[in-house]
Design a protein that fits this description.
The protein contains 16 helices and 15 strands. The chain is of the alpha/beta class and about 400 residues long. The protein has three domains: about 90 residues, ACT domain (Alpha-Beta Plaits), CATH 3.30.70; about 90 residues, ACT domain (Alpha-Beta Plaits), CATH 3.30.70; about 150 residues, 3-Layer(aba) Sandwich (Rossmann fold), CATH 3.40.50. The radius of gyration is 27 Å and the shape is elongated. The N and C termini lie far apart (about 55 Å).
Length: about 400
Amino acid sequence: MPSEIVLVNVSGDDQPGLMSMLTSSLAQFQVRILDVGQAVIHDQLNVGMLVQIMDSAQVSDVLHNLDACARTAGISARFSPISEADYAEWVGSHGKPRYIVTLLANGFTGEQMAAITGIIHRHELNIDSIRRLSGRVPLASVDGRERTSIEISLRGHLAVPEALKAELLDAADRLIFDFSVQEDTVYRRNRRLVAFDMDSTLINAEVIDELARMHGVGGQVVAITERAMRGEIAFQESFRERAALLKGLDESALKRLAETVALNEGARRLIRALKHFGYKTAIISGGFQYVGEQLQNSLGIDYVFANRLVIRNGVMTGEVEGAIVDADRKAELLKEIAQREGIALQQTIAVGDGANDLPMLSTAGLGVAYHAKPLVKETASHAISNFGLDSVLYLLGFSDRDIETALVE
């Protein structure tokens, strides 16, 4: 008995019971539902159903009944025949790689979306779905602008991933938006550990610079930092030299700084949400353990690994206890925490701003450069440059509704 495949598209005012009515109409006949999708935008419903009508003699009756249902509900229905060859090609495309592009902007313009979708088209990727993660945008928002996040699901073979990122990065710098491109794998949907750099990432300060200014050696510390950035001195050596300049500084200065240091925008909201959703969190920093532990107590961070200043009789000796947490050590610590928690590296996230964070960012399943320097932004897989730390939640697929529900419970 020959069958026919038909694509059914229904659109109009959303109303309760509509899907029940349409599917009840189909239930009277020998029909298989091969695919189904639904979206509602501003109370306008769009439903798509790919159906196989098992007896071709029933095709006209099936479509007549669906059309009658749609008319009764005051909506429209369109029907498109699909050949078996086209259907077989569509089924075969199911095995193509999938990607998630997450976009973040102060309200999206037509120019931004045209640039983004044009780049996607040039790389021969198909858009499967588009989902808004942020809340609805009020017209009366400040200056008519409000943080908006959109998630685009893509399908296809990406020949040169670096080229896609480079084009999106150029457009993002020119048109002011942030983006992330991730492979849509089971690990992307099951991240379990988030590790943060501390200075200039989780907090809005470089602690060693602040302490140096308090001690009157700020210029000397900056000079050493610049030598390290030029590659004239290794990080470990530079850190010990800078710490040595703090010799004689009273411990109370470190305590005052730890108690008053400001979190970066969105940090507290991000940590609260991550804890609610069951994520493990860590600070892995080339800064100071004392400050990290204060943040641990305040925010409920699970792990803190940083450098320990030696303090005797309430005064800093200028020495550092144990191994220096440098770039390579950061990556190793991420691995150690993941192993201790039984978490695959693909399920980890790392967030940082400096070049010494790059090994950790590349080791993690998702490495995010946060308000980072150009080299780090270009090298890291993902970047947030215009918004707060809580934007990381969008990269995990959480919507504003998910987040707000978590924060009030």
